[in-house]
């Protein structure tokens, strides 16, 4: 039901010029068989984890690994069309996105391993503003960002979403804010980790689906509210750890 709902919603929005924040060129999906060997070691590890998790949730079948590799390779090629060349020694500014694409993997699971549905959804989704915040590889070396922003290698999720979380945390949860200040960590570091991984390893699958759906339906600012609500939920634990 969720797959059908977000599919129809995103398809409807992507057809409206008013809602399309990013322009995307035409992309023809690669027909050739994509081999796992073409992926980086980080991607291979991510694929294994995703497939294992998908089978545990009874969402994926035996041949799911090839389908996920196909999706990841096509996403990389599709997003490459909208990238700039930046000469830098920073690891995060090399041609390939340094991490694993947790968002595309989450959509692959929501679509029960249907690679065509997943790719169609991601291509349409990439036109919407919310894609910049939910799908981190979406803005990797992106021509949609100013060159000065790109050269710093800091993703907009960090200086937009995570920054707003810190501002709200001061007002909403001052004790949690103080606890972070005393620890030498910043809430934005933790939020960036959660958001990059789509809350994998932190929330149950149904909650991950709710997070993705809420942000798609209600807007990217709900990413900030979600992080604040998690900090509120963890407040007693955070304060207990601070005392200890």
Report on the structure:
- The chain is mainly alpha-helical.
- It folds into two domains: 143 residues; 88 residues, no CATH class.
- The protein is built from 13 helices and no strands.
- Helix 8 packs across helix 10.
- The longest helix has 17 residues.
- The protein is globular and about 55 Å long.
- The model has no long low-confidence stretch (mean pLDDT 88).
Labels describing this entry:
244 residues; BROMI protein; BROMI_C; Rab-GAP_TBC_sf; mainly alpha
Short description:
It holds the Pfam family BROMI_C. This protein has 244 residues and is an all-alpha fold.
Set out the fold topology.
Blueprint: H1 2-14, H2 41-56, H3 64-80, H4 102-110, H5 115-125, H6 131-134, H7 147-152, H8 156-172, H9 174-183, H10 187-196, H11 205-218, H12 221-233, H13 235-243
Helix pairs in contact: 1-11, 2-4, 3-5, 8-9, 8-10, 8-12, 9-13, 11-12
Shape: globular
| Number of separate domains | 2
By DSSP, the count of extended strands is 0
Report how far apart the termini are. Answer: 45 Å
Residue share in helix: 55-70%
Low-confidence stretches: none
Strand content: under 5%
Which structural class best describes the helix and strand composition?
A: mainly alpha
Rounded average pLDDT: 88
């Amino acid at each position: 039901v969720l797959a059908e709902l977000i599919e129809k919603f995103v398809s409807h929005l992507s057809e409206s010029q008013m809602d399309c924040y990013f322009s995307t060129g035409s992309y023809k999906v690669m027909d050739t068989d994509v081999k796992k060997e073409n992926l980086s070691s980080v991607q291979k590890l991510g694929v294994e984890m995703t497939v294992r998790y998908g089978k545990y949730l009874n969402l994926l079948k035996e041949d799911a690994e090839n389908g996920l590799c196909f999706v990841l390779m096509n996403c990389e090629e599709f997003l490459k069309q909208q990238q700039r060349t930046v000469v830098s020694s920073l690891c995060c500014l090399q041609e390939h996105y340094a991490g694993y694409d947790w968002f595309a993997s989450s959509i692959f699971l929501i679509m029960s391993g249907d690679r065509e549905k997943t790719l169609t959804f991601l291509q349409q989704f990439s036109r919407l503003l919310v894609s910049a915040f939910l799908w981190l590889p979406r803005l990797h070396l992106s021509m949609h960002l100013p060159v000065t922003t790109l050269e710093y290698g800091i993703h907009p999720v960090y200086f937009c979403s995570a920054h707003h979380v810190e501002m709200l945390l001061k007002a909403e949860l001052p004790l949690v804010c103080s606890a972070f200040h005393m620890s030498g960590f910043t809430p934005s570091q933790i939020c960036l980790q959660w958001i990059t991984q789509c809350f994998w390893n932190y929330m149950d699958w149904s909650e991950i689906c709710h997070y993705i759906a809420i942000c798609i339906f209600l807007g990217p600012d709900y990413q900030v509210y979600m992080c604040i609500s998690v900090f509120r939920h963890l407040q007693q634990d955070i304060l207990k750890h601070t005392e200890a």
